[in-house]
Amino acid sequence: MAMIGMNIIGLFMVLMLLLISLIILFACKPWRYFSRFRSSSRFSSTFKVGDLQRPLISDDGNLIQGQTSEVTREYDLEGACYQNDGLLHSSLTEGRFYKQRLPSSSPHFSQGESFVLEVISEPSDNALVGQTLKLPAEKGSLAEVQTYDWQNNRNENLQYNLEKDRLINLSPRLVEDQRSWLFLEVIAGPAIGLQHAVNSTSSSKLPVKLGRVSPSDLALKDSEVSGKHAQITWNSTKFKWELVDMGSLNGTLVNSHSISHPDLGSRKWGNPVELASDDIITLGTTTKVYVRISSQNEFQIPFKIGVASDPMAMRRGGRKLPMEDVCHYKWPLPGANKFGLFCVCDGHGGSGAAQSAIKIIPEVLANILSDSLRKEKVLSKRDASDVLRDVFAKTEARLEEHQYEGCTATVLLVWKDNEENFFAQCANLGDSACVIHLDGRYIQMTEDHRVVSLSERKRFQEAGLALRDGETRLFGINLARMLGDKFPKQQDSRFSAEPYISEPLRIDQSSKDVFAVLASDGLWDVVSPKKAVQLALQMRDKERGRESSAEKIANGLLNEARAMRTKDNTSIIYLDFDTSL
């Protein structure tokens, strides 16, 4: 009985071992490797899903660097392919290499053929590291390898890529064409002539702020204008420019209609209103801003421009000193899109003559250059002497009402030729001056017309009307040439309105460090042209690459005049031909 019991126990253990072996055998499925080994000896057109369930990375050290693969293409999980360079290196872990996902290609496959795979599986919910993910496919379909014309497919892909590149190249142009340009010009008030232009895509320069204090984009030196008076924004939803009053004390009008908050003076913002071209914005009661809107960049100024002015009222013992200087610039001129004007007028006996001249000069110049024959003559001869002389004569003729008021006038005309080179030519009356720095040298573009200047004393002598000993003024005026002053001119023939006109100056695209400084005598009385140029060069280097660099340079020159204790109104226009500054 004991022997029988032992035999039964032994038989049970054998059965248990056999059962365990069968379980292990079914779990490991060793026949998969036999099937894969057989398939490597000959090519089969059909593969099972299990053939694709191998890890992407192998730790097999038998595959060494430099060993090539037999497969000319490798496929990712989504059926896309890329060229194999022959070395199947993995960048994930050093010493690891990619295994082939497909059996070795058959000798019957020719170069240029490819594979299309349809994998039969359901997506795995828990994908492990190194596990190949499988795309879902229709039930009952087989993972088949088919061949197709790789050359035709490459042509189709090439055509698609070319079309895609063409659309990409077109996109910036379409965006650029959709830009809206806003141009603002102060046409009345203490800051008359001030201009500002911006486009709707310049997000860093928006919104445009209008106010009396920095950092206003349109800085308006008007006591009725609040420090932060109004702002203009681009509404990208409506594709419109909108103006909003920022709670100003004296209100904002558009075409004489108030847009301020009903409770004026409460510092509450008004509602935004849409702007249209030719609108007139009134800030307070005196400052008026003209609005122009265009879909093209017809207002972009190819220079950096800074304007600064100060009546210097405290330099005469605190006595109130009225501001009689006026600055103006305009690019391009209406009807002459290759021409621009920069002008400084310094009044005496009042600001009336200067205010009138600063309006007349741009108008007369634009009318002359709107004549295509005269404009082409300037471009062909590269000389605008006749035009400038005509401008001063016609301006003088229209100042008949200014019997006892006059002003200096320094006009810098800048234009471009067909080769995009600039030309600059200056005309002046009085002691306002212009100097240009070009290629390491500074060029005086104006002539001093004070009574005691050498050029005027020589002119008097040639006319037989020399000055008497100690005579420094004529009719109490220290200038011999000016606009206006009709009564003194009738009494003394030594007065003149004949301008000095400089030689035209060519500014090539290769020219370096080119800039101009126009200013009233408030600067030149205490700062020489050479020193002004040196200061501007120093500030250019310091401000290079920063926004508003031209404005800072103009204010830097103004601060120098203030530090040197000038006793006259001071106005400065700084014009930099290097827009990359």
UniProtKB/TrEMBL annotation:
Coiled coil: none annotated. Keywords: Hydrolase, Magnesium, Manganese, Membrane, Metal-binding, Protein phosphatase, Transmembrane, Transmembrane helix. Its cofactor is Mg(2+); Mn(2+). Residues 304-577 form the PPM-type phosphatase domain. Residues 208-259 form the FHA domain. Its EC number is 3.1.3.16. Pfam families: FHA, PP2C. The chain crosses the membrane at residues 6-28. It comes from the Eukaryota. The keyword Phosphoprotein does not apply. SMART domains: FHA, PP2Cc. InterPro entries: FHA_dom (IPR000253), Kinase_assoc_Pase (IPR016660), PP2C (IPR015655), PP2C_BS (IPR000222), PPM-type-like_dom_sf (IPR036457), PPM-type_phosphatase-like_dom (IPR001932), SMAD_FHA_dom_sf (IPR008984). GO terms for molecular function: metal ion binding; protein serine/threonine phosphatase activity. This is protein-serine/threonine phosphatase.
